[in-house]
Amino acid sequence: MKNIKSLLYLSIGFLTITSCSDDDPAPEPINEEEIITTFTATLVPQGGGTTITLQTRDLDGDGPNPPVVTVSDDLMPNSIYDGTIVLLNETETPAENITDEVEAEDEEHQFFYTVGGGLNANVEYANFDGNGNPLGTAFTLTTTASSSGTLAFTLRHEPTKPNSGLADAGGETDLAVTFSVTIQ
Amino acid sequence: MYLRYFLTVCAILTVTFGWSQDCNYTLSGKVLDFHDKKPLAGATLYIARLDSYAYTDLNGTYSFKNLCVGTYEVEVMHPECRTLIFPVEIKGRTKEDFLLEHHLEELDEVRVIGSIYADKTNSGLESRLSEKALLQNSGTSLGDAIKGLSGISSLNTGATIVKPAIHGLNGSRVLVLNDGVRMQDMEWGDEHAPNVDINAAGSITVIKGASALQYGGDAIGGVILMEQAFLPGTDTLYGKTVLNGFSNGRGGSISTDLTKVFRNDGFIRLQGSFKRLGDQESPDYILSNTGVSEKATTLEFGKRTLNWGIQGKYSFYDAEIAILRASHIGNIDDLIRSINSGEPEIIRPFTYDLQNPRQQVTHHLGKISAYKRFKGLGKWSAQYDFQQNRRKEYDVRRGELNDQASLDLELTTHSFSTDFKWDAAEKLDWTTGLMGRYQENFPNPATGVRRLIPDYERLELGAFVTGEYAFTPQWKLDAGLRYDFSRIDALKYYQTSRWEERGYDNEFSGIVLEDLGSQLLTNPVFTFKNFSGTTGVNYSSNNTTFLRFNYSLAQRAPNPSELFSDGLHHSAARIELGDLRIKSETSHKISASFERRLQNWGFTLEPYANFLTNFILLEPTGLEFTIRGAFPVWSYRQTDARLLGIDASAYANWHRNWRTEHQVSLVKGKDLSQDLALINMPPVNFRNKLDFLQKEWHDFEISLISDLVLRQNEVPPNIVVFSPEQQEDVVLEINTPPPAYHLLGLSSSADFSLGTSSRLTTSLTVSNLLNSSFRDYLNRQRFFADGLGRNIQLQFIIHY
């Protein structure tokens, strides 16, 4: 019985020691290093005119708030636009430019453009990876007759390259954004 | 078999010679049970020096005649006890009583080998893995090894991450006891398998339910007991080496152990295992990135005598498991594409490389335990154990981040437990015990990914009392009560938007420590007080008919994942959300068992019903949009649920050489509040086995095994999601069950003796003999790839 008693003391002692360590310093906050919060496509018309920006911004990442989508203006018919894409992580200060990372790993990334809903437009790749396969952070967009529809951008990580489009590209989606666009 | 070993090993007698001329003395007395002082009839006493035997009568009385003055060594043997040698000094007419350990626990194990039930509980449902099956599974995992037992299934992530499920329940509802230590290895995650090496276990018993209160009050699913092999005799050195080669995965494993038992009952045991597999294969394609590398070692030493024992142990487990590359996806469209394509998107040539996504886990376990027996009273035991579990999960990431784990958790646990077993009374045995546990989780912030599980400290205290009363030799009653207290104190960052979306800003505003704008530092502290209890009755007649009936009440405090989960799971393309409001869940389980065990045939029927209140489940509740696209949100929710099931098994010895075994398990789970089927319930499955045995041909045995798994027709409905790629709502067939499948297996083995003390067992096992393509409902990778194709396993076991 003596053993039991000493054991009890031991266990009580043990529990008091271990339960007193509540004064831990606060853990440091983590800002997601990888997340893309902001997608901006800037469309500059060849031969002058209004520059159009298409932007999607989701500052809480995988949090509950949906991305905020803005289209600065309508596109002009029968025009050619030079497009560039910028990806930012704005949870960090200053914001981190993720386009640089994507371009550094150009063989493992590819943008895809999907024109939908009757929009009279066509998008072509304007930059390529080291193997001559499309990368797509730069593109040209050609509009024809007035119309409205959607323009979607998809970024795939580790797609099969070359491919004939989203359907056989595989890989995993890093970004998928859709804009409602009007040409007039 | 062990018994025979016992009696032969204990034969060495050292005799100290006395000196005398007078040889007319007698030695007489009784042989008694150490615990309750009951006389032991039928004991044999042997004095080697004189080559003289005596036997005890019904009163336990013996006598020797014609002894000389001096010291003799008397060897006392009884079929149910460990043989002991007592030195006795003869100075005249001498009286001496000998005490033998009649309840020697290890003997329980001897008794049940080959039978369906073990004696871990009186009235609970139990299954034990035979020693042979354990060895045969040496190259697999705990989950795979016990899957063949009735009522046991598993939730898999691929073929290598196998999470055992008992009567349809897994995770925190299934306790894994590794040599008396309750594993603390982040069992809360669906893709976390127990971090144990089955080669370190001497036996594995599964208790299907919460009837073994000494291990914990929260075993709503049940308990898996991995126990050390029994230490035979004294002054021996023995061991074994198991070699496995696998065709599927093009790899193998080796495991070896060596035990030395000294003359003074001290012992030391060393065990080590290594396993390496490359990419595994389905019948039609390589499952790219499914290799595994596993290392484990155990060192154990101590001293075990009749009256007391002390032992120390250290074990280390390290596993690196690659996860099917095609199962790592970006958003809901990727998932839809995978489900529709029917073939993994990424199939590469075979490799041994373990690439991302992969898991890397290490587990350290140390323990010190001791026991002491008190004559006529019982046995006191105490144990301290330390565990450290480190889990790193690597995702496919951009740039340098690819070498940085996305999840990096370190879980440290100290436990202390003590109990006293009162076994002196003839009809009543009871045990009472206390447990204290302190646990700390540290999520490494270097991941650059918000913590899935926060920093926390948890304190647990438990106390229990259990008892068994034998009314008659046939009828035994048991009852037990347990109280558990647990307190979890966490420091967690919430995204401000999530905090508000969950409505925590109203209910939990008091726990916010700091507001960083987009994030809030909070300090959730929760206390849970749980009661559990069990009672049951066991009837056994003539060793042929057994009846068991048991009621168990179990309560389980929510685990950290259920409370705090908050983030995106790439492996499932879903956002998982815990809930700070979650309370303990309660289970009322009634189980019964009816068993007939005859010479040529036998059967077991085990129906059960489990009524759960506040059952915690994870289910799809909505959709959230991010810049990556849409993700289904899975939230933890509490509901009332009911599980009804039956396990049936039978065997028949048709002929001296032919035997068949049959088994069927059925369980139906229902969410009572919503009148829906519960997710992840095992489908009805049948296992039939045809055995041919020929003892004369080196114990040759060949078996054909058929596993039929029906389609799970009771599943929750699929969810409708908006696909940004298709610009419309689509049905996400996340709950659609795969069709039924049938797998054949073949297994054969033979024994060869190598000299006097060594033995070689060889076996050849083929699983999925017909190379059938199938997908299993309980495999989380069923959306991406087929299950394993044919696997030929060649095994050599050398006992020495």
From TrEMBL, chain A:
Domain of life: Bacteria
PROSITE patterns for this protein: PROKAR_LIPOPROTEIN (PS51257)
Stated name of the protein: Type 1 periplasmic binding fold superfamily protein
Gene source species: Muriicola jejuensis
Automatic annotation (TrEMBL), chain B:
Keyword Transport: yes
Domain of life: Bacteria
Keywords: Cell outer membrane, Membrane, Receptor, Signal, TonB box, Transmembrane, Transmembrane beta strand, Transport
UniProt GO cellular component terms: cell outer membrane
Stored Pfam families: CarbopepD_reg_2, Plug, TonB_dep_Rec_b-barrel
GO biological process: siderophore transmembrane transport
Subcellular localization(s) per the UniProt record: Cell outer membrane
Domain TonB-dependent receptor plug per the UniProt entry, residue ranges: 128-223
Molecular function in Gene Ontology: siderophore uptake transmembrane transporter activity
Membrane topology classification: Multi-pass membrane protein
Ranges for domain TonB-dependent receptor-like beta-barrel: 367-769
Membership in a protein family: Belongs to the TonB-dependent receptor family.
PANTHER family: HEMOGLOBIN AND HEMOGLOBIN-HAPTOGLOBIN-BINDING PROTEIN 1-RELATED, TONB-DEPENDENT OUTER MEMBRANE RECEPTOR
Identification of the protein by name: TonB-dependent receptor
